[in-house]
Amino acid sequence: MRIATRSGRTVLVSADTASIVDVARASGGRFGPEPRGVYDAWDEFVDWATGSSIDFAADGVPVVLEELGPPSTDPRQVFAIGLNYRDHADEAGLEHPDSPPAFTKWVGSFAGPVGRLELPAATVDWEAELVVVIGRRAERVTAADAWSYVAGLTVGQDYSERALQLSGPAPQFSLGKSFPGFAPQGPWLVTPDEVADPDNLTIECRINGETMQKSSTSRLIFPVPTLVERLSSVVPLMPGDVIFTGTPAGVGGARTPAVFLQAGDVVETTIEGIGSLRQTCVAP
């Protein structure tokens, strides 16, 4: 199953991703329209959605990627994980962590899958990421059970303004990664059962058609089940919560010389079995 948001309303996406149907209208008001209400009733929603005979041809409207928003528009909590690929830790010259380094990206940075990215400074970097959305309250769950708490997976970018991120005696990771548009996600949420191997997905970032990052989520130091286990051992994860799982090697700031985004650049981020994002960089 694939779900997305359009004008703040949850929609179901057809198997061929060509059309969408409004969940609140299709369910007679039982679910939605706001995404949080859908995640709060996730198990019941899945039962309804998988058991319904929705006629996308008759009731659907065409998918317009520019009209879609992030799959979870107002999560209670947003987690972002740093240094979660060995090759990225190596390119940063840092030791591999023995526990997941966590920070946040504020919801004001959320954006849909396609649009413009305003560059607030000359040192904006890219970070392709697999993003997880939680479907059930998770508190002290084990890695073995963790996938059952995941609503689905989507594509994300953790855009980062490096000068602010690394400024001061205490780095400003969350602020440097939370300018408007710095957390695009989408184009839709894909439930784990729709992905052949959710622990082994090709992830790629291209800028102006040139591949800058290409890896697999199988190379995560802390894979999705471990992240859910570790995070939920500290704080309960709530339905609709969002987890950015980290980025592989190939970021601009680690290159010699460093490379950062410029107005006119087009950034495309793709994850196998899920879909793609596209942002066009513009001057402020």
Automatic annotation (TrEMBL):
Stored InterPro entries: FAH, Fumarylacetoacetase-like_C, Fumarylacetoacetase_C_sf
Positions in coiled-coil regions: none
Tagged with keyword Iron: no
GO biological process assignments: carboxylic acid metabolic process
Entry's family note: Belongs to the FAH family.
Keywords for this protein: Hydrolase, Metal-binding
SUPFAM superfamilies for the chain: FAH
PANTHER family assigned: FUMARYLACETOACETATE HYDROLASE DOMAIN-CONTAINING PROTEIN 2A, FUMARYLACETOACETATE HYDROLASE DOMAIN-CONTAINING PROTEIN 2A-RELATED
GO molecular function: hydrolase activity; isomerase activity; metal ion binding
Domain Fumarylacetoacetase-like C-terminal: 78-280
Name used for this protein in its record: Fumarylacetoacetate hydrolase
